[in-house]
Amino acid sequence: MKNHKQAVEKIAASVQHYFKRREPFRIFHGSTNSTRETTHRRQNTIDISALSHVLQVNTQSKTALVEPNVPMDRLVEATIKHGLIPPVVMEFPGITAGGGYAGTGGESSSFKYGYFNETVNSVEIVLGNGDIITASNKENQDLFRGASGAVGSLGITTLLEIQLIQAKKYVKATYHSVRSIREAIERVKEETLNPELDYVDGVLFSKEHGVVVTGCLTDDLPDTAQVQRFSDANDPWYYLHIKEKTLWNVEPITEYIPLAEYLFRYDRGGFWVGASAFEYFKFPFNQVTRRWLDDFLHTRMLYKALHASGQSRNYIVQDLALPYSTVEEFIDYTTKSFDIWPLWLCPLRQTHLPTLHPHFHETEANSQTLKPMLNVGLWGFGPGQNHKFVAKNRELECKLRELQGMKWLYAHTYYEEDEFWDMFDRQWYEGLRKKYNAETLPSVWHKVRVDLDAQRQAIDSSWGSWALQFWPVGGLWGIRKAIESGEYLIARKSTWRTRDGPSQGR
């Protein structure tokens, strides 16, 4: 903790320096899982990338003390050795604990536990004036709840205490084939009411074929069961595997997946976004080519290539949460307007209000519990011309609001400022910024919006940025920068994906 304290004091001193000069500043985390382009310069930037350690795993209290830049795979590796795991684990290994708290993290266990922030007991935060405080449900509760989802606009998170639950060796995963959008939605909702389940999500491959996947933690492996893995180059991609298993089989199919393999099952291929790289390069997409190019097809490498290539300017990556009652209409709309398949379905338990997370104001019969939402993951190529891409995103935002839905703020966001604040409680948020001296930090709207003028200026002022628009220059440059990052080595060395794996369960 001594090194942590010294690092935080140094960060706080830098913040205090900018505060006294009334100068705005930005935070450098060292990695990102946002798909927005970074157009600002590195001046007035505070580097917190060194805060990347799991400081403690307490088996008695079932908690972990974690610095904000600890990615999910390192967190799972640290806790699973003690027979424990976080209740909500973001399914991309590189997503960080701080990103899950300050952003929105909802995964297949979120129907049960809520967003990732609901599993955080407390956070240490450096305020906009350099003060270091702790926020939890017992102290500074308004900040604790407000900073969750505020993307760092209320202060710098420097430490989190995260809840842990008992780990088991396997997830008993059952694949339920569905043959319509409505059946998929109804089946997901029905399965979330089953208290014996630990995980629920779904994939729609088309209007006529989908899979709802339910999972239970277990140490029991039947003698006749085979263990299915997804992390090795010779293993299938998860989404292709469940598609093949259920294409002609209407009966439920059960498999046993090692726990960490289940948690990061979408890493290879980045759900199915990795298939778009083959489409972009007009390269054959089959088991042989996927195995050959495996190093490039893990999510860390895909994010590096996406940003470096400039392809995020015309690639739709959106998570969109809606009431169950409007999801079918929304998918009908995306089918006609985007024709992007597959789609991810993830049930979500709502968080406390007011909030900057996706939400809608409708309660259950008890008039207290907010009704759950269903997230739709829409990821695929959009229009190639920038003005058409922007128009399509604006159309999507309008349709989403019409159907009482909200997008996650990690992705392209084009709302005008007044429009943005029509969806959130501005008075509450501005009150927190004033109370906790955060007014010199960029606001949440300034952080999440796509600055089209800055984007155009960056392209016009650099021949390199201009050249990335042309095929295959952008893609080749993205590959080069991804290789130079060396992040493919992280996946190679991850202990959770070894054949024997780390100690799992008890």
Account of the 3D structure:
It is a single chain. This protein is of the alpha+beta class. The chain has an eight-stranded antiparallel β-sheet with strand order 13-10-12-11-15-16-14-17, with helices on both faces. Strands 3-4-8-6-7 form a five-stranded antiparallel β-sheet. Strands 1-2 form a two-stranded parallel sheet. Helix 6 packs antiparallel against helix 12, helix 11 packs across helix 19 and helix 12 packs antiparallel against helix 13. It starts with a helix and ends in a 13-residue tail after the last helix.
**Tertiary shape:** globular
Alpha-beta classification = alpha+beta
Number of helices: 20
**pLDDT < 50 stretches:** none
Q: Helical percent range?
A: 25-40%
Radius of gyration: 22 Å
Mean pLDDT level: 93
SS elements, strand count: 17
Biggest sheet overview:
8 strands, antiparallel
Q: Classify the beta-strand content into a percent band.
A: 15-25%
Span of the ends, CA to CA: 28 Å
Strand order of the largest sheet: 13-10-12-11-15-16-14-17
